[in-house]
């Protein structure tokens, strides 16, 4: 669940953000001086000598504007794929993933990327890259993005933040809008493009509705802060692939 799902792929996830690189080793077999109580490391890579001593381990982070010398204004994750040898002794998972497995996942995600963006509040694009061993930079394979995310689109996509303030309203609160998604895929030397339009409706039920009363009781009796919220989307473009 959540971040722990990465352990399906790897035994040693890590990420870079700001001036830090953080590595997780829940088995305590890859990093020095780690334990079940402290299963990882956080290094200030700007000042740490570890970066020069183990440059091969940190080289994969040198991309997308990160040079591992200055603080990086963003976040990059690294998930080294679990090999067959690692899977044989791993206590986390026996699943092995190859490069072809990941490419297959990329292909599947391309078909579903629009649906992943539908109800998000802030993310406006998803891009997928591969970085060949002898290439100087990664190559974009696919992208999916919202066309022209102007202020009114941002306003509608953040409806849950706005309408949640009226959760005690005696009337249902509804927000609806249309959204254009574009997808691009590199096929050999040509670029395949497609645009689909979705109509999205967000609704916050009134405090007197059955679901509103249920949410209020859940908060009062069990400390659960639920919102009587629902959202649906329908593609109004012909021929969207299922």
Automatic annotation (TrEMBL):
Residues 1-142 form the Sacsin/Nov domain. InterPro entries: SACS/Nov_dom (IPR058210), Sacsin_chaperone_reg (IPR052972). Pfam families: SACS (PF25794). GO terms for molecular function: Hsp70 protein binding. Coiled coil: none annotated. This is Sacsin/Nov domain-containing protein. It comes from Nymphaea colorata. The lineage of its organism: Eukaryota, Viridiplantae, Streptophyta, Embryophyta, Tracheophyta.
């Amino acid at each position: 669940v959540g971040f722990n799902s990465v352990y399906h792929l790897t035994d040693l996830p890590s990420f870079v953000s700001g001036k830090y690189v953080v590595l997780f080793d829940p088995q305590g077999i890859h990093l020095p001086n780690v334990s079940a109580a402290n299963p990882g490391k956080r290094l200030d890579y700007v000042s740490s000598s570890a970066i020069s001593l183990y440059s091969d381990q940190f080289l994969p982070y040198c991309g997308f504007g990160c040079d591992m010398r200055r603080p990086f204004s963003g976040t990059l994750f690294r998930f080294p794929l679990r090999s067959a040898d690692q899977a044989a002794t791993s206590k986390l998972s026996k699943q092995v993933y190859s490069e072809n497995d990941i490419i297959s996942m990329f292909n599947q995600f391309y078909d579903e990327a629009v649906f992943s963006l539908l109800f998000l509040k802030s993310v406006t694009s998803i891009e997928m890259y591969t970085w060949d061993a002898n290439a100087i930079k990664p190559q974009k394979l696919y992208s999916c993005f919202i066309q022209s995310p102007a202020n009114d689109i941002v306003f509608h996509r953040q409806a849950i933040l706005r309408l949640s303030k009226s959760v005690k309203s005696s009337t249902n609160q509804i927000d609806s809008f249309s959204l254009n998604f574009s997808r691009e895929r590199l096929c050999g030397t040509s670029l395949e493009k497609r645009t689909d339009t979705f109509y999205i409706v967000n609704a916050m039920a009134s405090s007197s509705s059955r679901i509103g009363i249920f949410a209020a009781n859940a908060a009062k009796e069990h400390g659960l802060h639920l919102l009587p919220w629902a959202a649906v989307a329908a593609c109004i473009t012909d021929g969207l692939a299922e």
